[in-house]
Amino acid sequence: MSDLTAVKALVFDVFGTVVDWRTSLITDFMWWGRQRGISADWTALVDGWRGMYMASMDEVRKHPERGYVMLDDLHRRSLDKLVAQFAIKGLTEADLDYLTKGWHRLNPWPDSVAGLTRLKTKFVISPLSNGNVALLTNMAKFAGLPWDLILSAELFEHYKPDPETYLGAARLLCLKPDEVMIVAAHNGDLAAAQKNGLKTAFVARPTEYGPLQKVDFEATGNWDIVAKDFGGIADRLGC
């Protein structure tokens, strides 16, 4: 049993951990496409879009001389490539903006809001996401996520799993790294955070990628908490 008595704040991975990005986007785009009379394989587009996510952030890391690029802009660049690849015709600039901002309109997993609300009674709670500040703020309004503040990779101009994100979150909260616990459905995120001194909690989201899910069905590291949902984390932390 880990000693968690020093923990004062919980920070959360968001895409896949707090919100169900895949189902949200596919449902949104299918409805929108019908309204606009635009036909496309929206499931393939969404899966392809997420498939470009890590590579787009790696490109920012490889070229620091070009400056930091926020996730909204990376999402738009990836979308432009996918629209061409899938030969989707008739999209206006407003349409492309609507699709890009789909990442601002993601629905929470069923346990997310209730679990966060419980955890908020005892801890400072915040996202620690690669999403930019506007994206995370709009998502919180849309999904009813009760954050105390928004911590984003944009604030540190580094994407996870760069150390600057985890250590930057602790610094802005005026806490030591071991006074911050990160909650994620991704073992790699937790491993990077743990390496930088943060406490860790794992929640499995085995349907995040739908039939394409290949990893993160279960905890694979020595995490401080492993729970089936946010309510289980609240139980362990006495909320």
Automatic annotation (TrEMBL):
CDD domains: HAD_L2-DEX (cd02588)
Catalytic activity field: an (S)-2-haloacid + H2O = a (2R)-2-hydroxycarboxylate + a halide anion + H(+)
E.C. number: 3.8.1.2
Keyword Hydrolase: yes
Gene3D superfamilies in UniProt: HAD superfamily/HAD-like, Putative phosphatase, domain 2
Keyword Cell membrane found: no
SUPFAM superfamilies found in the cross-reference section: HAD-like
Pfam family, one: Hydrolase
An MF annotation (GO) of this entry: (S)-2-haloacid dehalogenase activity
Keywords tagged on the record: Hydrolase
Family note: Belongs to the HAD-like hydrolase superfamily. S-2-haloalkanoic acid dehalogenase family.
NCBIfam families assigned: HAD-SF-IA-v2 (TIGR01493), HAD_type_II (TIGR01428)
Function: Catalyzes the hydrolytic dehalogenation of small (S)-2-haloalkanoic acids to yield the corresponding (R)-2-hydroxyalkanoic acids.
Protein name per its UniProtKB record: (S)-2-haloacid dehalogenase
Species in which this protein is naturally found: Bradyrhizobium cajani
